[in-house]
Design brief:
Elements (H helix, E strand, L loop, with lengths): L3 E3 L9 H10 L4 E3 L22 H4 L4
Parallel strand pairs: 1-2
Length: about 60
């Protein structure tokens, strides 16, 4: 059985290369990054709750 890992990368997380190397060293077969991990700076539609973009969303939009 093969195993992989998935991660949203942020400005303070491991880089994709660092994570890939760490996983490979531990016997993992794959690494995935979610599609659409970036949010445009100028959004026409506000967040569902209104107001500013929350930190949990902002972290994956850089």
């Amino acid at each position: 059985m093969d195993f992989g890992a998935s991660m949203f990368f942020t400005d303070y997380s491991m880089t994709p290369a660092e994570l890939g190397q760490a996983l490979e060293a531990r016997g993992f077969e794959a690494v995935w990054a979610p599609e659409h991990s970036h949010i445009p700076n100028s959004r026409l539609t506000p967040p569902a709750g209104g107001g500013e973009l929350g930190k949990q969303d902002y972290d994956v939009s850089r």
